[in-house]
C-alpha cells in the first residue's frame, strides 16, 4: 500500500552493491577507503561498510562524529574546517577515538592549541581550484607555514592533506569528470613531491566513480556513491540502476490544459537542487513506468511539486496513485526526510530523525 505522505525508500541491495564496488576499486588502486558518511547519516547503513573492512570514516560535523562514535567507530575524520568554538566537543570525541579534522590557517591552530587537552590529527585542506575552502594548491610556502604550526603545537599531529574536487559536479560526461579530476591529481602530484611523507586524502563521488588510477592520493573519501542520484546520472558517475533511493509522492491533482500533475512533494522533501533538462530546470526524475525525457518535476514550492508530463505519461498517471521519483541530490533529500523505509517497509534510522522534538 502506498504512503499517504512523501516517503524516502532505500534499496539495501543496491546500497551494498555500491559499497562493494567502491571498496573493490580502492583495493585495486591501492588506496585506503575512508568513506564519507554525510550522505546516509545512518548507523544501520554505516554497519554495512564494516563488511568490507572499513575502519576509518569521514563525517561533516561534530554532531555526526558523536552519532557514529556511539556506534563503535573509533577512527573518525571531521571533513570540515576546524571550529574554534568546538574545543569541548573535540576534547570529548578525541578522548574516545582517533579524531582528525581540517585546518586552513595558523591562527585557528593556535586558538585551538591554547585550550585543547586531547591529541588531534589535522589535515591541511587543499583547494584544487574549486574555490570553496582550503589553501590554494599552488601556494607551497603557505602550506609549509601551516604544517610548521602543526609541528610546533602541543596537541596536534599532521594527518596529511585533504582535497575535495567538487568542481567535477559541473561535468556532464565521464570524459569531463576524468579531465577535471586528472588535472587536480596532477597538481597534487606536485604537492606530493614537496611533502612525500604525508598522505593525501582525495575524493568526490564523480572522481571516485570514474577514475581507475588515483595517482598521488593515498586515501579516498567519497560519500554520495552509497546512494547516487539523478545528478550523478547526468554527470556520468552512474546509471539509473545504481541509484539506491527514491521518493514516493502521492498524486493530488491533474491539470489537463498544461499536461501537469500536482504531487505532495516539495522543497522540504527534495531540496531545490536541480539539473537542466532541455534548457529547463528539473527538480526530480520520475521513474519506472513514468520514465520519459519529457517528464520531470518542473517546479517546487514548500510542499507542492509540479510534474511536467509528456501527453502519454499524463494520460497514464492517476489521481490517488503514488509516483516514484529519483531525487536530484540524495544527500539533501535524505537529510530533509530524516529516515528511510526499506522496500520491505522497515524504517531505518537517520541522524536527523533521532533529534526530532518529542
Automatic annotation (TrEMBL):
A molecular-function term among this protein's GO annotations: alanine racemase activity
Domain D-serine dehydratase-like as annotated: residue spans: 244-344
Domain of life of the organism encoding this protein: Bacteria
EC numbers: 5.1.1.1
Alphabetical keyword list: Isomerase, Lyase
Keyword Lyase among record annotations: yes
EC top class named in words: isomerase
Keyword Transmembrane carried by entry: no
Residues forming coiled coils: none
Family: Belongs to the DSD1 family.
Official protein name in the record: Alanine racemase
Species this chain originates from: Gracilimonas halophila
Amino acid at each position: 500500500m502506498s504512503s499517504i505522505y512523501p516517503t524516502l525508500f532505500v534499496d539495501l541491495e543496491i546500497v551494498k552493491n555500491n559499497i562493494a564496488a567502491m571498496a573493490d576499486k580502492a583495493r585495486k588502486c591501492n588506496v585506503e577507503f575512508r568513506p564519507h558518511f554525510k550522505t546516509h547519516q545512518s548507523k544501520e547503513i554505516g554497519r554495512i561498510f564494516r563488511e568490507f573492512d572499513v575502519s576509518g570514516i569521514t563525517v561533516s560535523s561534530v554532531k555526526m562524529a558523536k552519532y557514529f562514535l556511539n556506534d563503535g567507530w573509533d577512527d573518525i575524520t571531521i571533513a570540515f574546517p576546524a571550529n574554534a568554538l568546538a574545543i569541548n566537543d573535540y576534547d570529548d570525541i578525541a578522548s574516545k577515538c582517533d579524531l582528525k579534522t581540517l585546518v586552513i590557517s595558523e591562527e585557528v591552530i593556535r586558538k585551538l592549541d591554547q585550550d585543547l587537552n586531547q591529541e588531534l590529527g589535522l589535515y591541511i585542506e587543499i583547494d584544487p581550484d574549486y574555490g570553496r575552502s582550503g589553501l590554494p594548491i599552488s601556494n607551497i610556502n603557505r602550506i609549509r607555514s601551516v604544517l610548521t604550526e602543526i609541528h610546533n603545537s602541543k596537541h596536534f599531529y599532521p594527518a596529511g592533506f585533504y582535497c575535495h574536487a567538487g568542481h567535477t559536479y559541473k561535468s556532464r560526461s565521464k570524459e569531463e569528470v576524468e579531465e577535471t579530476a586528472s588535472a587536480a591529481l596532477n597538481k597534487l602530484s606536485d604537492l606530493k613531491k614537496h611533502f612525500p611523507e604525508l598522505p593525501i586524502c582525495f575524493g568526490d563521488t564523480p572522481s571516485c566513480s570514474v577514475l581507475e588510477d588515483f595517482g598521488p592520493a593515498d586515501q579516498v573519501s567519497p560519500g554520495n556513491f552509497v546512494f547516487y542520484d539523478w545528478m550523478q546520472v547526468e554527470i556520468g558517475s552512474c546509471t539509473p540502476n545504481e541509484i539506491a533511493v527514491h521518493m514516493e509522492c502521492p498524486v493530488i491533482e491533474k491539470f489537463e490544459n498544461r499536461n501537469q500533475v500536482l504531487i505532495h512533494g516539495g522543497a522540504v522533501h527534495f531540496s531545490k537542487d536541480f539539473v537542466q533538462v532541455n534548457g529547463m530546470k528539473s527538480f526530480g526524475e520520475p521513474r519506472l513506468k513514468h520514465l520519459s525525457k519529457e517528464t520531470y518535476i518542473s517546479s517546487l514550492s514548500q510542499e507542492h511539486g509540479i510534474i511536467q508530463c509528456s501527453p502519454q505519461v499524463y494520460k497514464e498517471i492517476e489521481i490517488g496513485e503514488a509516483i516514484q521519483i529519483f531525487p536530484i541530490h540524495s544527500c539533501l533529500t535524505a537529510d530533509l526526510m530524516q529516515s528511510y523505509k526499506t522496500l520491505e517497509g522497515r524504517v531505518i534510522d537517520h541522524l536527523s530523525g533521532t533529534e526530532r522534538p518529542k
